Queue: 2 jobs
Job 1
Amino acid sequence: MTDEGKFVWFSDIHFDPLYGRAGAVNDASCSDGSVNDAPWGKLGCDSPVDLVRSSLDYAQSIVSEPDFFLITGDLCRHKNDDVNVVAMLSGVADEMRQSYNNTVFVPSMGNNDVVPDYHLDVLGGDNQLGEIREALSDIFPRTRNDTFARGGYLSVNVPGGAAVVLSLNTVIYSVWHSPNSTGVGDPFGQFAWLEMELATMRREGRWIYVSGHIPPTVGSYRRTQLWHGKYLDRYLALMLEYSDVVAAQLFGHVHSDEFRAASLGGKPLPPLLMTGALTPVYLNNPNFRVVRYNRLDGTILDYDTYFFDVAKANDAAVKPQWKISPSFREAFGVPDMSAGSLSSVADTIASSEKAGATFLSRRKADIFEPPCFRPCRARWNCTLRASSLEEYRGCLLTAGLVGEAAAQPPPAGALHYVLHPGISIFVLVGFLLLACGIRARRRWTYKTPEPVEIDGDENCDVLPTIREIT
Ligand SMILES: [Zn+2]
């Protein structure tokens, strides 16, 4: 066995069993007859079964025996309360097991894998967790104890012995989680478990990947904080305390290829990687990645993204032509994906127009993005370094972006420019009511000035149109 290992990483599959039929996500163009000409999926729609199969077949053809197969949540389509979630989960799990019959899978639960979206009863216990575990039985890994049915989290040994993946339930920390239980200090006892696992691994001289669906950071779509502040603070403190054993944090949810090189108290946190989505619903090409890592210490060395031009595949009515994009190392000229390397890439994106363009074109797997000039790249640098909204705002001030922002009307992605807290809350509430209508009003239980995320993969079931994205 060499020191270099590989794992396959899928996220945000969002399988839609009604694709091409009445009731499909997202709108009429995903359910009418024209979809017959687009069997591999379509920009603006969730994933048909042929896309799920094609991606797994292709992954299997390039890496038939990965060390493990990571899934960072959201197997099920959006608007999932109209469809049988258990059937969607078990259907995707069955496809995965058929493609990878001996591989260890590491699943995480996404907000669209529960019903309604983001709903888990922390106080009374939630039967959905046991049902999800059962639905995923084809791929559910052997664990030391059944923490998943109790709290939606699990610990998986990576074959080879040195490493463990701790897969977290992050739905319960989301600013969109319901029912409101922010008074609970440690929902489902997950922090106590995480701390115990981290301490055990350190004692045993092993290293760890932490994985999950919703990343502990500021989202790039609306530039808002994705977790409640109290849970974010506790998690970040643990990541700092155990930065010697946590080799990387691996998350999905944002449907965008990104990273964070954040720090706490001036000390770097373990590198945080976010992968793109298989579903093209947010106007990205379908993609997944294969990651190369050092088996001895867990350092992520590099990754390759595989994607195909979904619009072209449909025009040609031929099988998807899967392609590989330049690896992270090739694209940015760094030796690995350690915290130091990611930090230097964040700086390069800020200072170099070429690096900025490279970063943006990779975000949605080779979809054109408009030019990003110096203030735009400085804003990205702040995003790539922030864990919390407070840090992000502080970075904008340091970068001198407040004056630039004040000169512009704040569009959807620029609510952070409204710095006075009172005005900020007023504008934020107004915007959400407009954007999300009645449904948002029903959910809105505003208690503290916590930031609210309506980022990439959530937003009260309002899927963005092309105009909103651009
Ligand atoms: Zn998603």
Job 2
Amino acid sequence: MNRWTPLAVLVTTLAIGAVLMTTTELPTSQAEDPKPEYVGVKACKACHFKQHKTFLKTKLAKSYEHLKPGVSAERKKASGLDVDKDYTKDPKCLKCHTTAYGEHSGFPALVEGKEWTKEEKARAELHAGVNCEACHGPHSLVIPHKKKHKDYKRADIVKLGAFAPTKPENCDHCHVKECPTMPEDYTFSFEETKMSDKLHAHKKLKKEH
Ligand code: HEC
Ligand code: HEC
Ligand code: HEC
Ligand code: HEC
């Protein structure tokens, strides 16, 4: 045996190890790529106190409440809706009056004849109403990224789940004439509403990303 043999054995072992790792581990690591999840309004409070506080007072935050019997009675009456009906049981209404309806970590879909699990009930509470992430995208991966990268780039947070904050496409699917309370000639302007206090109070960003 010459003195290089142990090294050769080590190198060969490492090479075989590397081949095994790429062949056996790649598919699983791809399957386990973390998916962005919806985390709810409270998760934003610590860093966006002002937006959080003012948002909670808006109609957007109460848009799920408005589906309940007796609530928003005038608007319902004027639109020919049944004031006593519980529209929180109507998926057609929930798709716009909740956050991420039917998505894997959003407001759970209603399925005929199936009760929600405990986990789904908790999720329903978290995502009732048109909340932060309905407009800004799921934040489970964005928040840790922002904590680590004070000088984060917008393109990176978009890759991690944030909707390009914020474009008309993030609003248009809900702001179309589909709600029974909307007038026939309903129109929506992103440019006119994007800085409105009806969303939340706005604060100028400290820096460009
Ligand atoms: C750990 C702190 C932290 C948390 C938690 C956090 N953010 Fe942020 N976010 C920031 C910082 C820092 C900025 C940049 C602020 C600035 O430039 O003035 C920012 C900016 C933003 C912006 C502006 C767009 C941009 O350029 O990024 C939006 C929208 C936003 N956050 C949404 C949210 C939402 C929604 C949540 C909760 C789901 C949330 N953030 C939670 C730290 C946080
Ligand atoms: C998930 C669906 C959904 C998305 C996405 C959405 N909205 Fe809405 N929006 C609603 C609903 C539902 C209401 C009505 C709330 C209520 O009064 O019950 C509403 C109401 C509003 C109002 C009126 C609030 C008031 O006080 O009268 C404004 C302004 C608004 N949205 C702007 C936007 C903008 C800007 C975006 C995109 C950045 C957006 N919305 C995205 C569903 C949505
Ligand atoms: C395509 C999305 C969409 C669907 C579907 C939808 N809504 Fe809405 N709803 C909205 C938006 C957006 C507004 C706010 C409109 C405005 O600015 O006047 C709204 C407003 C309302 C309001 C007024 C709340 C208030 O501020 O007092 C009520 C009540 C309401 N919707 C009930 C319903 C019911 C009941 C259904 C199902 C039968 C339904 N909506 C389906 C998007 C939707
Ligand atoms: C209905 C849609 C909508 C909801 C709900 C919403 N936002 Fe926003 N948000 C916007 C829009 C539109 C802008 C302005 C984007 C732009 O500058 O073009 C904005 C801007 C921001 C900014 C940038 C700084 C500022 O104040 O303008 C932050 C931070 C932010 N939102 C956080 C939040 C948080 C936290 C919540 C929930 C507590 C929330 N947003 C709920 C639509 C929304």
